[in-house]
Every structure is written in structure tokens, then in C-alpha cells.
Fold this sequence. Notes:
Elements: H1 4-21, E1 24-29, H2 33-44, H3 46-53, E2 57-63, H4 67-74, E3 79-81, H5 84-88, E4 95-98, H6 105-115, E5 119-122, H7 125-142, E6 146-147, H8 158-165, E7 171-177, H9 180-192, H10 196-205, H11 214-217, H12 220-234, E8 244-245, H13 253-261, E9 264-275, E10 278-289, E11 301-308, E12 312-319, H14 323-340, E13 371-381, H15 386-396, E14 401-406, E15 415-422, E16 425-426, H16 427-438, E17 448-452
Parallel strand pairs: 1-2, 1-4, 2-3, 4-5, 5-6, 8-10, 10-17
Antiparallel strand pairs: 7-9, 7-11, 9-10, 11-12, 13-15, 13-16, 13-17, 14-15
Helix pairs in contact: 2-14, 6-7, 7-12, 9-10, 15-16
Bound molecules: L-homoserine.
Amino acid sequence: MPSVASRAFWKTIANVMALEMKPINVGLLGIGTVGGGTYTVLTRNEAEITRRAGRPIRISVVAEQNLELARRVTAGKVRITDDAFSVVTDPGVDIVVELIGGCGVAKELVLKAIENGKHVVTANKALLAKHGNEIFAAAQRKGVMVAFEAAVAGGIPIIKALREGLTANRIQWIAGIINGTTNFILSEMRDKGLPFADVLKEAQRLGYAEADPTFDIEGIDAAHKLTIMAAIAFGIPMQFDKVHIEGISRLEADDIKYAEQLGYRIKLLGITKRRADGIELRVHPTLIPTRRLIANVEGAMNAVLVQGDAVGATLYYGKGAGAEPTASAVIADLVDVTRMHTADPEHRVPHLAFQPDAMANIPILPTAEIETSYYLRLRVEDKPGVLADITRVLADQDISIDAMIQREPGDGEEQTDIIMLTHLTREKRIDAAIAKIESLPVVKKKVIRLRLEELDK
Ligand code: HSE
């Protein structure tokens, strides 16, 4: 005959087991490319995911404007609505997955979901980069989780790596190829020697670039992702408005060719660096040594290089977009939330990797204070003394030259290109030098200036 105590014990165990096997209910907002991928992968790998999460993860409702699409993807197996607000207030929904994008209705829905005590999983980089501080503060107050692995570099688990895997480290810098569209365009420009405009058209025809490609080619998408990575790497608030952003639309095929001759490849990098006086936050085309692994990331692939003081350099590589790669990240977050669902909020992994009361107010350095090396291309008269004039201007600004090549002038040509690489300097020094160089009568065009990173320490 079991004792009262042991009967109570078995009852508790039975309750815990029943709770654990009870599905966690997901409300999916948007069933386009990523939403469709999420549905497909969750369904296909259901048994495996349940074994990992400890209980089934079930999409219980889908909100989608295109009802026909939603019916087709879910084969009529899931409740469908075109009213996303009814999902974020639905008492039966535990986790809201926001895959609508943008900062309009998506922001309202995410805040409403949090207000209603739902955990949120989102792939929305723009929303977090611009309104993340408000969203995480609201989540903190409500004791709910906001997970965002899919917002940066698609299927690459870079958020998890920065937030958890590298948690022992003082992160020193991050340099990432975090936009597949621009990496595809740069790879094609280099491979085929074609100008930017031609390759962009081809990328649009192949579906790599959007009809309006501005967000990608002007570096805005990369800046959103960089903002998020910097926040969790350094424990600082999201500061998208302080990112220095330059895209690739003005990049010339000649510079890609000259960079190759000097042993460098041009990539659109998102770079964030901790310096003694603040943090650099910048997106721009960058020369990097061809021998680095990251320089060989081609086509639409993404890669992120992270330098930690203990671990040294680590490199993360994979697909930065697409239905199933991005779904892989969304579902990883769903599993995390499911595992931590019943944990006391104080004992969960903090949203931004650092405890909310331990965030730092480190200044973001202005562009003039960026410290890097430079590539300069100058169109000059081909006559004695030209190089001496130019190097004098650089020396006056304390800028040291690392390498130089001169294009062989064609028959009868009186002008030529000089390409120079500098050692490390400050942006304000190179700008002052360029202004002086451009005023020399022997210099015939505006100087082309690109930044260069060795990525070695
Ligand atoms: N448009 C992005 C890219 C993918 O080209 O990488 C989504 O952020």
C-alpha cells in the first residue's frame, strides 16, 4: 500500500509529464517564403524536434493576407485567419512567430503579443535594429522571451554563438558578409569583369536581387544585422542611426581588378570593433586579403568572422537567406523558447546576452575617427615629380604607404592610374590628405578611396 507522500509524488510526476507532452502552440504571422519553410520543416522533422524540445511544437493558427496561399501551404490542416491581431491576443497561443517584416504593422503586432504575455520569435532585422530597445524593454517587463536568430545571417547560428558559445570572451571585433545579394553581385563583377549595373540586372533576373534593390545594395540590410550583432557582442543598446553605411553601387570593376593584383578581394563587410575610446560601427566595401577564408565566400553565401580575446578568430559560414535555411533559425528559437518556457524569467539567457541592468553606454565613434588602412586610386599626369608630390601630402598627414602599383600607360597616353595601399590611419587624416591631393594640378580626377582591413588581429 503506497504512502500518502508517495501517492502525491507520483501525482506530481504524472502532472509534469502531461504538461511536458502538451504541445506548445504557435501563432504564425505570415506564411510567405520563410513562413512556408518553417511550416514545412516543423512538419517534416516533427519527431526529431519534439525529442529535442521535450514537447511537440504545433502551429495552431496562421495569419496571412493571402488565404489561398496559406491553405495551399498548410493543406487545410491549420486554422487560418487574415486577422493577425486576433492571433496575438489569442489565449491559446503561447509563441507568436512574426514573419511579416518592416516596422509598421509588425511592430504593433510584436508589442501587442508581448503585452498579452506571448513569447515572440522574429526574423525582422529592421524592426529590432530600429525599435529593439523598446521591444526588449517591454519583453523584460512582461517576463517573455523575444528570440531573433533568423534576423542575422539566415541559417547561420551567429546569435547563439555570440550570446552563448562565446560568452567567456571579451569580443574584440566582428566582420561579416551579411548580405547575400551584394556578395553575389561582387562575386560576379570579379569573375566576369562586368560593371555593377550589368550584374545587378542579371541578379534581378535570377531572383537574387529585389525589383527595388536599395536595401541590399546600399548596405542598409547589412547595417540592420550589424546593429544587432554589435548589441549582443558588446552589451550596448541597438544604435542603427549611428552606423556608417556605404553600399556597393558606386564600386567600379577597375578597383576590383587592381585590388586582386595587390592580393586583396573586395567584400561588403559589416564591421564592428571595440576600441579604447569607443565602438566602430560601419558597413562599406572593404579590401581584405585574398588568402583569408572569409575572402573566399562567394555568391549569395554569408559568413561572419568573430575575434574574441580567449578563443581568437572563429568563422561562421552558411546560407544567409532562403526558405529552409531561415526556417532552421526560426525553429531553433522555437525549441529554445519551448525549453525555457517554464523557467523563471530571471534564469533565462538574457535577450541581448548581457544582463539588462549591466548594459554599457560605450560611445559609437564618429566616421572621422574610424581607424583602418586605405586603398587609393589616383588619375595623374605621367611625368616626373608627381609621385613625390603625392607622397609628401601623405607624409604630412603621417600616413605611411604599404604598397603601390602604377598602370602601364597606353601608347600616346599622358595620364595613368596610381594605386596605393596605406598602413593604418584615421579617416580624418586620409580625408585631409585626399583634399590636398585633389587640389594638385597633376591629379586629374577625384581620388577613389576604399577601406582595407587585414582581419588578422
Ligand atoms: N536580402 C538579404 C540578403 C537576405 O541579400 O542577404 C535577407 O536579409
